Amino acid sequence: MLNLYDDKPIIACSTGTKSNTAIGLIRLSGFKDILDLQEFFSLDLNKVKTRFAHYTDIISSKGVVDSVVLTFYKGPNSYNGENILELGVHGNQFNIRRILKLFVDSGKFRAAKEGEFTYRALLNQKLTLSQVEGLDMLLNASSGLMLQQGLETLQGNLHKEYTDLYDSFIKLKGAVEITIDFSEDVGEQESIDLLNRNFSRFFSIIKRLNNRIQGEFGGLTSPEIVLVGQTNAGKSSLFNSLLQDNRSIVSSTAGTTRDYVSEYVFIDEVNYKLIDTAGIRETVDQIEKIGIERTFEVLERAFYKILVVNPGESNFEDFKKLPQDLVFDLLIISHKDLVEVDYKGLFSHLPKFKKCFHMSLKNGPIEPVEVFGPIEPDVKNGPIEPEFNTAPIEPISKSGPMGPVHSFIFIEDQISFKFSELTANNPILLERHRDCVNSIYCKAVEFDDVLRNINDIAIISSELNILGKYVSELIGIVRPDDVLNDIFSNFCIGK
Q1: CB of 305 within 8 A of CB of 329?
Q2: Phi and psi at residue 234, to the nearest 5°
Q3: For residue range 331-341, what is the model confidence (pLDDT) as tens digits?
Q4: What SS3 string covers the chain?
Q5: What tens digit of pLDDT does each residue of 359-386 get?
Q6: What is the mean pLDDT of the chain?
Q7: Dihedral, 459, 463, 465, 466 alpha carbons, nearest 10
Q8: Taking a C-beta distance cutoff of 8 angstroms, is the pair 433, 474 a contact?
């Protein structure tokens, strides 16, 4: 946990310290008076205007360190409520480190920790916890959806809905207080009507938010595509084809991939982690066993699950190790050009799946399965009606560093379709927000029952106070300490 009571001035480079840039932005925060920093600048700091850019040299006992642009933001009208000085310096990393060292060695500043500027904004009530989480999502977004929702949670529509919810709760609480203290003045019936009107408005907002958490959306924040199958099924070939790069080793030797291999692939403005896993089979090799166990772990959390099956393999018993309720998004039958496939017999040994097609992983078009109608697998799984395509799908040839490569457009389209389908109603992605909204909604339903059936205003007030705790937790007025470490550990230095 960040030290809650350390108010010493801090300094950091907000533009990163990994590579050279044209300009580096160094931020200093928490100093009491800008005049206390005069020794570091050639410019007379008495002449500095807030929120104006000023040209100056940074100086030390050895002379000029750098020529920079200085901008001063006086607290509390700054990002985190403290005095902040921003220095636009030359972005050579050696130069940046030299400037940081100059201020830290002076004893007037210490190096900031991850997210500490924003942490101070939270402490100084410049941001709520939900806004901080929105900023976290914005900074670490892997898709346009996350980017947009991060902005909405920070200052946009979602933040407005949260504040509207809180404001409506305050009015609801006020209506209860009026009923307790002033019912004789305003009239008993008017007090009841006011209470019901305010609760109706509050409930309509939380119901609308609750609709946005319905479904399984956990994998949308960092979506993973996992390839699962036997050894020598063709997973690594498919992995390389989707990446358009020979990233994974392809060999006729079974068990070549003994641990999962992952790379990022960008599909329709979404950054997915594509994972090639160890082939599922019985093995005495301890390292391979660990790899297969990791396959199951990755499979459990994956956003999109692809099962790759080589029909030429006779042993499908290992698939029974998979969870019985598992449903694959896509079944790919590989090596169709080499093997005649008994589809009904094959499907009876496989887990459930939603769609299926067969393909040659080496060349030629990707052909749809020429079988229609329900397929009956093991009785314990129930009937499956996989969706089949009715026309050949041609991979698009492109030229790459390894020569011609094939982009499997069909698979990418299926992945994009699922992502679009799940995000059509603009779901709330942050797990803590989802949990809070669910808690508020459930408690609001209980409160509705109390309001309808109990006339004791003291009980109503007590139940409303419990509801208020859940609302406060969502907005972040009550700050749950257990989430702070997770949030700020994701921030970059200087933010």
Answers
A1: yes
A2: 115, 15
A3: 888 876 666 77
A4: CCCCCCCCCEEEECCCCCCCCCEEEEEEECCCCHHHHHHHECCCHHHCCECCEEEEEEEECCEEEEEEEEEEECCCCCCCCCCEEEEEEECCHHHHHHHHHHHHHCCCCEECCCCHHHHHHHHCCCCCHHHHHHHHHHHCCCEHHHHHHHHHHHCCHHHHHHHHHHHHHHHHHHHHHHHHHHHHHHCHHHHHHHHHHHHHHHHHHHHHHHHCCCCCCHHHCCCEEEEEECCCCCHHHHHHHHHCCCCCCCCCCCCCCCCCEEEEEEECCEEEEEEECCCCCCCCCHHHHHHHHHHHHHHHHCCEEEEEECCCCCCCHHHHHCCCCCEEEEEEEECCCCCCCCHHHHHCCCCEEEEEEEECCCCCCEECCCCCCCECCCHHHCCECCECCCCCECCEEEEECCEEEEECHHHHHHHHHHHHHHCCCCCCCCHHHHHHHHHHHHHHHHHHHHHHHCCCHHHHHHHHHHHHHHHHHHHCCCCCHHHHHHHHCCCCCCC
A5: 665 544 444 443 333 444 433 343 444 4
A6: 78
A7: 150
A8: yes
C-alpha closest to that of 409 among 472, 359, 474? 359
Phi/psi at 373 (5° precision): 95, 170
Report yes or no: 443 and 207 within 8 Å, Cβ to Cβ: no
The least confident of 172-186, 316-330, 383-397 is: 383-397
Dihedrals phi, psi of 15, to nearest 5 degrees: -100, 10
* pLDDT for 394 beyond 80: no
pLDDT at 285 over 70: no
pLDDT of residue 232: 73
- Cα distance between residue 179 and residue 186, in whole Å: 9
Cα–Cα dist 335/312, whole Å: 8
Residues 6+ apart with CB under 8 A from 355: 329, 330, 331, 386, 387, 388, 414
Most confidently modeled of 147-156, 349-358, 378-387, 429-438? Answer: 429-438
Q: Phi and psi of 342, rounded to 5°?
A: -90, 90
